[in-house]
Amino acid sequence: MKNKYLSILVIFLFSLSFNSSNATTHIVEVEDFEFNPQNFSVQVGDTIIWTWHDGFHTTTSDLVPTGASHWDAPIESSTPTFMYVVTHPGFYSYHCTPHQSMGMNGTFTASGTTSIIRPTQNNVPFRIAVDNENSKVILRYTETLAGSSEIRVMNISGKVVFRSTPHVSVKDREEVINLTGANQGIYLIELINEKSRFVKKVIIGR
Questions:
Q1: CATH topology of domain 25-111
Q2: Helix (H, G, I), strand (E, B) or coil at 89
Q3: Which CATH class is domain 2-13+120-205?
């Protein structure tokens, strides 16, 4: 088993809660001197992930709707992804700073009538611990949640690789996520409860 141990780094990149459990993850490939897709549509609450393939680039916002957050992130070998949660409806435009003059720009338009609120770290109702030896991630609730919950783990392409529906979601209870055999890459651990959704990012490497 030792040769199959996973080295898992949990990155608290962001935490979020919003009024729809049907959010979508959109992948933007960053390669050559273009964003692919260059222009697309999303819904408020969706997540956009820029994914590096080659070169040194950035994703840097130009125009965002009133109340939305600007961003400026490198996309290169040491920081191969950047994730952005769409919080407000409207038109967004962005560029790659080193290659803007070469036409490396992108846009997306967000539909939806309700803006979402990005909570503080303390509002996320779970923590993650890692069991490297047994290739498991342990989710521990930090508060009791009312109603039914669902836990999902998705890879970078949005495919669900683990799903669980806990019968109870009470403080200090642990949920074991078995990732034996998981490929190296980026995964999203998602907890959906009633009309809220909470996400943490996990990087799995051998």
A1: Immunoglobulin-like (2.60.40)
A2: coil
A3: mainly beta
| DSSP states along 133-164 | TTTEEEEEESS---S-EEEEEEETTS-EEEEE
Domain boundaries, the chain: 2-13+120-205, 25-111
Whole-prediction pTM: 0.55
pLDDT tens string, the chain, 206 residues long: the values are 333 333 333 333 333 333 334 568 899 999 889 999 999 999 888 889 899 988 999 999 999 998 888 999 999 888 888 888 888 899 999 999 999 999 999 999 999 865 544 433 456 788 887 676 677 888 888 888 877 788 888 776 567 788 888 767 788 888 888 888 777 777 778 887 766 777 777 766 55
